[in-house]
Structures are given as structure tokens and as C-alpha cells.
Amino acid sequence: MRRREIYVEGAARWRNPEDDLPGDSKAARAVRYAAIRQPLNPWTFIADLKKRMTAGLDQLSGALAGGSAGG
């Protein structure tokens, strides 16, 4: 049995997760993603996140090596 495979009618914790989505979630997906400035393609999101994290870690590594990290 997988998690969230059985739902309890009227329960708050064990309810069907599909019921939490707005009725027009698939139709309005592009609008909602545009509102939060996120790409529809998950691989684009992951690539951008990876690029930003790598840049941040490179910056931290340089600051630690140069002694300017503040501690």
C-alpha cells in the first residue's frame, strides 16, 4: 500500500490531496506559474536553481579562501 492511497471522508489530515486543488488548476496552471515567475518545465526550474546554488557556493568558497567571509 502506498502513502495517501486511502482517504478518510471528512478528515482534515487524511483527505484526498486532489480536493485541495482549485477546480480549474490544469486550465489556469500557466497563469499561476507566471504570477509566481516560475517556468512550467520542471527541468528548467531545476537547472536555474542548480546554477544559482553553484554560483552562491563558488562565491562562499572564494570568500573563505580569501579570508573575507567574516569569520
UniProtKB/TrEMBL annotation:
Highest taxon of the lineage: Bacteria
Protein name: Transposase
Organism: Streptomyces leeuwenhoekii
Organism taxonomic ancestry: Bacteria, Bacillati, Actinomycetota, Actinomycetes, Kitasatosporales
